[in-house]
C-alpha cells in the first residue's frame, strides 16, 4: 500500500489517509468542501459540491491519475433535496462513461458540510 498526500486538498485530521494506492487502484477518502487555502466552506450546495470534487481531483492527481479514471463515487448529502443541484455540478466534472455512483442522505456530515464525496479510481 502507498499513502497519497497533497497540500492541494484538506489534510487528514484523524487516523486516515487522503488516499491509498494499492494494486493499481486509488481509494480516496471522502472529501468535504473545505478550501485547503482558507480552511472554510463555500456557501451553498453547488459551491460545496464543486469544492469537494476539486479536492478529490487534487488527491487523484497527486496519485498520478485523474477524474477520468474514476470507476466509483459515493456522494453523501445532508439533505436529499439538494440532489438535483449536486448532480448538475457533478456532471461538470465527469464524462461518459460515467463512474458508478451511490448517493445517500445522512444525518450529519463533518463540520456540518452539505456534501461529502469519495471515489475510487484506476491508474
**Largest sheet strand order:** 1-2-3-6-4-5
Structural class: alpha+beta
Number of DSSP E strands = 6
Please, what is the average pLDDT? 97
Major sheet, described briefly? 6 strands, mixed
- The unreliable regions are none
What is the helix fraction of residues, given as a range? 10-25%
Question: What gyration radius follows from the Cα positions, in whole Å?
Answer: 13 Å
- End-to-end separation in angstroms reads 14 Å
* Helix and strand sequence: EEEHEHEE
Q: Count the helices. How many? A: 2
> What gross morphology would you assign?
globular
Strand content: 25-35%
Model description:
This protein has two helices and six strands, in the order βββαβαββ. By secondary structure, the protein is α+β, with helices and mostly antiparallel strands. It has a six-stranded mixed β-sheet, with helices on one face. A hairpin with a 2-residue loop joins strand 2 and strand 3. The longest helix is centred in the middle third of the chain and has 18 residues.
Amino acid at each position: 500500500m502507498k499513502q497519497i498526500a497533497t497540500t492541494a486538498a484538506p489534510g487528514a485530521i484523524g487516523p486516515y489517509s487522503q488516499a491509498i494506492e494499492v494494486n493499481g487502484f486509488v481509494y480516496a477518502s471522502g472529501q468535504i468542501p473545505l478550501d485547503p487555502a482558507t480552511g472554510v466552506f463555500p456557501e451553498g450546495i453547488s459551491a460545496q459540491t464543486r469544492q469537494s470534487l476539486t479536492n478529490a481531483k487534487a488527491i487523484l492527481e497527486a496519485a498520478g491519475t485523474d477524474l477520468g479514471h474514476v470507476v466509483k463515487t459515493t456522494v453523501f448529502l445532508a439533505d436529499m433535496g439538494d440532489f438535483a443541484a449536486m448532480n448538475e455540478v457533478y456532471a461538470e466534472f465527469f464524462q461518459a462513461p460515467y463512474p458508478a455512483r451511490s448517493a445517500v442522505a445522512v444525518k450529519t456530515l463533518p463540520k456540518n458540510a452539505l456534501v461529502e464525496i469519495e471515489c475510487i479510481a484506476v491508474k
